[in-house]
TrEMBL record, chain A:
Its main location: other. Its cofactor is [3Fe-4S] cluster; [4Fe-4S] cluster. Belongs to the [NiFe]/[NiFeSe] hydrogenase small subunit family. This is hydrogenase (acceptor). One of its GO terms (cellular component) is ferredoxin hydrogenase complex. Residues 347-367 are annotated as: Disordered. [4Fe-4S] cluster 2 binds at residues 235, 238, 263, 269. Residues 64-210 form the NADH:ubiquinone oxidoreductase-like 20kDa subunit domain. [3Fe-4S] cluster binds at residues 278, 297, 300. One of its GO terms (biological process) is anaerobic respiration. The keyword DNA damage does not apply. Keywords: 3Fe-4S, 4Fe-4S, Iron, Iron-sulfur, Metal-binding, Oxidoreductase, Signal.
From TrEMBL, chain B:
It comes from the Bacteria. InterPro entries: NarG-like_sf (IPR036197). This is Nitrate reductase. SUPFAM superfamilies: Respiratory nitrate reductase 1 gamma chain. The chain crosses the membrane at residues 15-37, 74-95, 115-137, 149-166, 186-208. The lineage of its organism: Bacteria, Pseudomonadati, Pseudomonadota, Gammaproteobacteria, Chromatiales.
Length: 367, 220
């Protein structure tokens, strides 16, 4: 790959023909993207102008390339394309021109030249240290060994997609490959999770932009997700929320409620338990998003989303309870109650049979 | 790190099965035992039917008589408030209605959320008031047992965690929801073995009382 990391972002953007006006618009959009006040835009401009494009090594493990698709399918030229172009992407299986030894050489070279400064982006889960390393290898090396080798001198690791962030589909029961997430394995580096199946393109570029502007990583929630994008639930930002509050629900995918755009809770929407920016940033250049298209949220940006109940079951439905449990327990209880009552009756009868009457006089004599 | 989601799935899965099984076993055992033991045979000739009086008393005892109200207005008013608030949240909150539908196969319409939210907030305040009253009223304090405080704590936890989860005041959210479900499961487990059984036996006891009076031909 062409080496461009010696240029500042400002120089690089001008090389691409971006005007000052366009650049400031980019900064304003970045500010709003990161939920910062508009007054921060000049500071962002100054920081981005001077920022050196960080070297980025993108590792793909047990994944479907959907996350890469999500990032690259944005309509060109968009802001996210611009930012994406202004990191130095030194290694990426799918996108790089080099292959074989040359590709691996590029990764090692980038690590050596940018020791302690490069970013590692991971998509896909990793067969853990105890799993058979043969489940997923690149150039004859196990995913685990490549990850640990690459992150050793990284500034930070960004886990893109639910598989890298939480284990995702490969980790779903029974997890045949012993799949683990990045944060399960990388303990001594900052790990930022950008989950989603796939994540919204703007979210990953927003995280990188934040790193460039402030020189540090964004504020994260309990799951290591940037709060600017994962701070609110789908449910709380959903345009169908008023119908939920009023108790107006679609009961099937083609009933009157569905046509009127009522809430999809009863059709299995996981919006209440899902934190992501879909409801506000939307997909495909802001065209729409799943709930707007009439489909319940699957909860793809949450841990264990494959095992968290049926996609078409309401969120409050128990996972494993069958009618047999309740009926069986009821019968057992009834038998137990019947047994106790019978015992009590029997005891009462026996007591009545062996009762020895006592008169008042006898009692008084005892006293 | 994804522990709180595992906790939520555990409370929604195996733990819910166990809690409901203990609840069903305990409750059925208690009820069947009560019904089978019945009452001593009454050899006196009945003066009137027991059923109408029994059924009537099931309802009339719901309203406290003037004497009780005069003696303990706090108990009557606050007791009513929190019972109604609790039942509103339990039976008419959308996710609860869906849960009931999934377990029983049928359910009823839910109430709008702002109403349920209001009822829950009132319930929390009323429950705190009952505890303060129990601790400050000399007689109440004297007759209160460990069970009374245990039952109060479990009921209060169920309502409080539900409120916290709905308003997302605990982070991460799966932890908040898991805590609410766990509290409800503890309530289900202790229900058949504590005074909480009154949820089911109160009306049976009223029927027995009313029927006994009805049989004698006196007002209950």
């Amino acid at each position: 790959m062409r080496k461009r990391s010696d240029k500042t972002l400002g120089e690089s953007l001008r090389d691409h023909g971006l005007s000052r006006r366009g650049f400031l618009k980019l900064c304003a959009a970045t500010a709003s993207l990161m939920a910062l006040p508009p007054s921060m835009a000049p500071a962002i401009a100054a920081a981005l102008e001077q920022a050196r494009r960080p070297s980025v090594i993108w590792l793909s493990f047990q994944e479907c390339t959907g996350c890469t698709e999500s990032l690259t399918r944005a309509h060109a030229p968009t802001l996210e394309d611009l930012i994406f172009d202004f990191i130095s992407l030194d290694y990426h299986h799918t996108l790089q021109a080099a292959s074989g030894e040359a590709a691996e050489e590029a990764r090692l070279q980038a690590m050596e030249e940018n020791k302690g400064r490069y970013l590692v982006i991971v998509d896909g889960s990793i067969p853990g240290p105890d799993a058979n390393p043969g489940f997923s290898t690149v150039a004859g090396h196990s995913n685990y060994s490549i990850l640990m080798e690459t992150v050793e001198h990284a500034a930070a690791v960004i886990a893109v997609g639910t598989c890298a962030a939480f284990g995702g589909l490969p980790q779903a029961r029974p997890n045949p490959t012993g799949a683990m997430s990045v944060m399960d394995l990388v303990r001594d580096k900052p790990v930022i999770n950008v989950p989603g199946c796939p994540p919204i393109p703007m979210v990953i570029t927003g995280v990188v932009a934040h790193y460039l502007v402030f020189g540090r990583l964004p504020e994260l929630d309990g799951y290591g997700r940037p709060l600017a994008f994962y701070g609110q639930s789908i449910h709380d930002r959903c345009y169908r929320r008023p119908f939920y509050d009023k108790g107006l629900f679609a009961e099937s995918f083609d009933d009157e409620g569905a046509k009127l755009g009522w809430c999809l809770y009863r059709l299995g929407c996981k919006g209440p338990t899902t934190y992501n920016a879909c409801a506000t940033m939307k997909w495909n250049d802001g065209a729409s998003w799943p709930v707007e298209a009439g489909h319940p949220c699957l909860g793809c940006s949450e841990p264990k989303f494959w095992d968290a109940g049926g996609f078409y079951e309401p969120v409050s439905v128990p996972l494993t309870l069958g009618p047999g449990t309740l009926l069986g327990a009821g019968v057992v209880g009834a038998v137990a109650g019947g047994g106790l009552a019978t015992l009590a009756r029997k005891q009462r009868k026996e007591e009545a049979g062996t009762r020895q009457p006592v008169t008042v006089d006898e009692l008084e004599q005892k006293l | 790190m994804s522990g709180s989601m595992e906790f939520l799935l555990w409370t929604k899965g195996p733990l819910f099965d166990i809690a409901l099984a203990i609840f069903a076993i305990g409750l059925m055992a208690r009820l069947v035992e009560i019904f089978m033991l019945g009452r001593a045979h009454n050899y006196a000739e009945p003066r009137a039917h027991e059923w109408p009086a029994g059924l009537r008393t099931m309802l009339t005892r719901t309203i406290a008589d003037p004497g009780t109200f005069k003696r303990a207005p706090f108990n009557v008013v606050v007791g009513w408030i929190w019972h109604i608030g609790f039942l509103t949240a339990l039976l008419f909150f959308v996710p609860h209605v869906e849960l009931i539908r999934s377990v029983l196969g049928f359910a009823w319409p839910a109430l709008p959320n702002p109403l349920v939210d209001f009822a829950t907030a009132i319930t929390i305040l009323a429950l705190i008031a009952t505890l303060v009253h129990r601790l400050t009223h000399p007689v109440k304090r004297h007759i209160s047992t460990v069970e009374d405080y245990l039952v109060w704590a479990v009921v209060f936890m169920v309502v409080l965690t539900g409120y916290l989860a709905y308003h997302r005041l605990v982070e991460p959210y799966p932890l908040a929801l898991g805590m609410h479900i766990l509290s409800a499961e503890i309530l289900l487990v202790i229900l058949p073995f504590t005074k909480l059984t009154h949820i089911f036996t109160a009306f049976i006891a009223r029927w027995y009382n009313g029927a006994a009076f009805g049989r004698k031909g006196v007002q209950s």
